[in-house]
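This part of the workshop introduces the protein records we will be handling. A record pairs a protein's sequence with a compact description of its fold. Backbone structure tokens are a discrete shorthand for how the chain folds in space. The question running through the whole workshop is how a given chain folds. The record below serves as our worked example for the rest of this section.
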Amino acid sequence: MIRWTVELRPVARRELRLLDDGPKRDAAALIADLTEDPMQVAASEMRHYQNTWKARFYHDQYRIIYRIARAQRRIVVIRIRPRGTAYEGMKG
């Protein structure tokens, strides 16, 4: 099976670094799962956003938002935030 490449945008990298230990471990595990198949993890495609997906983690308290470039088999993580602020300022 060909793995997917995962890239974290600088903002997502910083958000990951600032998480507490529990959410950070869960986020890292989820990111590792994305390399297997980003559409088969417990994620859903976001309406009104092309090729953009969201995945819940750490007791549904946090979200990872990412874009999928299928042709390049690449995932770009754009946000790793608590549920309440995960979607603020996003544009379609």
Summary: Helices lie at 10-18, 21-34. The chain has one domain: 5-84. The first helix runs from residue 10 to 18. The chain has a mean pLDDT of 93.
